[in-house]
């Protein structure tokens, strides 16, 4: 059974992976809290061919509120983990979860890996900075690096700090047939896909054998833009409810792009993977399914 280490294992994606893949791989789970103990990290990563680095500050808002901490965690911690991993595992495979937000929002969608880079917020800038730094570290140690520029993977079990779980919580807690929702900008199209898609993609990535050292970049999403307003209407209808919207100024983001969609055909071709949550209906089926 292949050994795979996962940092940030107590987060949404890490917890979901453990539930679904613990029988397929020997998962070595490193919660964010454990990453301050270098001796524990070294012991955990020894003789480990694959490391999935999930640990980081994933909230755009949190990064804007504390820029120094965002760079410290998303860049500094990522580089420190890569240094330790590659020194212990020559030719090892380091998988870094980046974001599709590194692309220029003004460029036509869907964005491809060759689309112009121009991150529009602190979160995306920290991820791009980490990508560049990790590429240098991987080259220095002749290790394998996969940069996954991910889009919105979500599920009902995700924290209500994120948009769709927050909407779901408000719908479920409402005693009225008409739910009054506090929202930010919902006149946008986003590349939402189910966490189940991401789990299958990462399983394929863990199993893949590649002998030579390289750095590769892949987009990972559904490849389809879903209108947020329509998603909310359809989600409420699943519970027999209607919705009315109230704009909450604190939820609005400056320069919020109209459409954020990624082209994942490179990953699909290379790993024989396909998103199963491209339509709104299929996406909501997976979103509400128990993991």
Commentary on this structure:
- There is one protein chain.
- The protein is an alpha/beta fold and 291 residues long.
- The protein has a domain at 3-154 and 192-223 and 261-276: NAD(P)-binding Rossmann-like Domain (Rossmann fold).
- Helices cover 40% and strands 20% of the residues.
- The chain has 10 helices and 13 strands.
- It has helices at 12-21, 38-45, 60-65, 67-88, 122-141, 163-173, 195-207, 228-237, 265-271, 280-288; strands at residues 3-7, 26-30, 50-53, 93-99, 144-150, 152-154, 178-183, 189-190, 192-194, 215-220, 226-227, 242-247, 259-260.
- The protein has a 6-stranded parallel sheet with strand order 2-1-3-4-5-10, sandwiched between helices. Strands 11-8-13 form a 3-stranded mixed sheet. A two-stranded parallel ribbon has the order 6-9.
- Helix 1 links the parallel strand 1 (3-7) and strand 2 (26-30).
- Helix 4 (67-88) runs parallel beside helix 5.
- It is globular and about 60 Å long.
- The relative contact order is 0.14.
How is this fold's topology laid out?
Layout: E1 3-7, H1 12-21, E2 26-30, H2 38-45, E3 50-53, H3 60-65, H4 67-88, E4 93-99, H5 122-141, E5 144-150, E6 152-154, H6 163-173, E7 178-183, E8 189-190, E9 192-194, H7 195-207, E10 215-220, E11 226-227, H8 228-237, E12 242-247, E13 259-260, H9 265-271, H10 280-288
Parallel strand pairs: 1-2, 1-3, 3-4, 4-5, 5-10, 6-9, 7-12, 8-13
Antiparallel strand pairs: 8-11
Helix pairs in contact: 4-5
Short description:
The chain has 291 residues and is an alpha/beta fold. It has 10 helices and 13 strands. It is globular, with a radius of gyration of 19 Å.
